[in-house]
TrEMBL record:
Record has Lyase as a keyword: yes
Source organism: Phlebiopsis gigantea (strain 11061_1 CR5-6) (White-rot fungus)
Record-stated family: Belongs to the enoyl-CoA hydratase/isomerase family.
EC number: 4.2.1.17
Gene3D superfamilies in the cross-refs: 2-enoyl-CoA Hydratase, Chain A, domain 1 (3.90.226.10), Lyase 2-enoyl-coa Hydratase, Chain A, domain 2 (1.10.12.10)
Taxonomic placement: Eukaryota, Fungi, Dikarya, Basidiomycota, Agaricomycotina
Matching PANTHER family: ENOYL-COA HYDRATASE, MITOCHONDRIAL (PTHR11941:SF54), ENOYL-COA HYDRATASE-RELATED (PTHR11941)
InterPro entries xrefs: ClpP/crotonase-like_dom_sf, Enoyl-CoA_hyd/isom_CS, Enoyl-CoA_hydra/iso, Enoyl-CoA_hydra_C
The protein's name in its UniProt record: Probable enoyl-CoA hydratase, mitochondrial
Keyword entries, A-Z: Fatty acid metabolism, Lipid metabolism, Lyase
Length: 261
C-alpha cells in the first residue's frame, strides 16, 4: 500500500484485513508516525463493508519491541503531558470489528500493550512477551499494568512490571494471556490468524459486534453490570434480520445468508 510508510496493508482472504508493522530495522518500534498510520488503517478497515475482522502482525523477529525509545528519550514532562503523548494509541480498543494480534518474536513494552489492546492474541512458538519499561526508568503507559492485571492477575503482573522479565509463548498461554500457541505444522501464526479472522468474518457482522461489546463488558465492569449488559444486547439482537435468518436457517436445515443488519 503506497499511502503508508511504516505499515503494509492487505486483504488476504474474504472479509479479512491484514496490517503488518513494517519497521524491521527497528524491530517495529512504535513511533508516533507509525501509530498514526496504524490508527488510520484500522479506522479505514473498521468502516469498510467488505471487512469483517482484522489482523495485526509484525515480522518473524518482532511483533513490536516497544515504543520508540529514541523518539522518547529527550521528551520532557511538559512535552508528553501537554501533547497527551500516546493517548490516541488506545483507539484500537474502541473499534467495532474484532482485531486479532498475530505475535511472532518480541512483543515488549508498547508491543505487548498493543497485543493486549487487540481482542484475541495468537502466538507463534517464538513469541516473547514482557514489560521491560522498568529497566529504562519508567513503567508501562499503554495499559500494560491495567490489562495484564485483569488477564494474568496481580502477582504475575507485579513480577513482570517490577523486574521487566520476559515471558515465553508457552508461559503466556498457560497464564491465559494468549488464546493459543500455533504449532508449526499448522503454518505461520499469521496464516492461523487470517483463518480465524475469516471464520469470524463469515458470521453476522451485527452479532459479532454485539458479542465483542458483551465480552468487553466483562473485561471492563462488574459481573452484575456485565450480566445486565449482556442480556440487553441479547434482547436487542431480536430486532435484527440476522436473528430471524439465523434461527430460520437452523430450523430449515440450511446455511444462513447474512444481511449484517
Ligand atoms: N525503540 C527504538 N529502537 C529500538 C527499540 C525500541 N523500543 N527496540 C529495538 N530498537 C532498535 C535498536 O536500537 C536497534 O537499532 P540500531 O540497529 O540502529 O542500533 C535495532 O532495533 C535492533 O535492536 P537490537 O540491536 O537491540 O536487537 P537485539 O536482538 O540485540 O535485542 C531487544 C532485541 C531485546 C528487543 C532489544 O532491542 C531491546 O531491549 N529493545 C527495547 C525493548 C524495550 O525496552 N521496550 C520498551 C520500550 S518503552 C515502551 O514501550 C513504553 C510504552 C508506551 C505505551 C505504548 C502503548 C502502545
Amino acid at each position: 500500500d503506497t499511502q503508508y510508510e511504516f505499515i503494509l496493508t492487505d486483504k488476504p482472504a474474504d472479509g479479512v484485513a491484514l496490517i503488518t508493522l513494517n519497521r524491521p530495522k527497528a524491530l517495529n518500534a512504535l513511533s508516533s508516525p507509525l501509530f498514526k498510520e496504524l490508527n488510520a488503517a484500522l479506522a479505514r478497515f473498521d468502516e469498510d463493508d467488505t471487512v469483517g475482522a482484522m489482523v495485526i502482525t509484525g515480522s518473524e523477529r518482532a511483533f513490536a519491541a516497544g515504543a520508540d525509545i529514541k523518539e522518547m528519550k529527550d521528551k520532557t514532562y511538559a512535552d508528553v503531558y501537554s501533547n497527551k503523548f500516546i493517548e490516541n494509541w488506545g483507539e484500537i480498543a474502541r473499534l467495532r470489528k474484532p482485531v486479532i494480534a498475530a505475535v511472532s518474536g518480541y512483543a515488549l513494552g508498547g508491543g505487548c500493550e498493543l497485543a493486549l489492546m487487540c481482542d484475541i492474541i495468537l502466538a507463534s512458538p517464538t513469541a516473547t512477551f514482557g514489560q521491560p519499561e522498568i529497566s529504562i526508568g519508567v513503567i508501562p503507559g499503554g495499559g500494560g499494568t491495567q490489562r495484564l492485571a485483569r488477564v494474568i492477575g496481580k502477582s504475575r503482573t507485579m513480577e513482570l512490571t517490577l523486574t521487566g522479565r520476559n515471558v515465553s509463548a508457552d508461559e503466556a498461554a498457560a497464564w491465559g494471556m494468549v488464546s493459543r500457541v500455533v504449532p508449526p505444522e499448522e503454518g505461520t501464526v499469521v496464516e492461523a490468524a487470517v483463518k480465524l479472522a475469516g471464520t469470524i468474518a463469515s458470521k453476522s457482522r451485527i452479532a459479532v459486534q454485539a458479542g465483542k461489546d458483551a465480552v468487553n463488558a466483562a473485561y471492563e465492569g462488574t459481573l452484575a453490570e456485565g450480566l445486565v449488559t449482556e442480556r440487553r444486547i441479547f434482547h436487542g439482537l431480536f430486532a435484527t434480520q440476522d436473528q430471524k435468518e439465523g434461527m430460520a436457517a437452523f430450523a430449515e436445515k440450511r446455511k444462513p445468508v447474512w444481511k449484517h443488519q
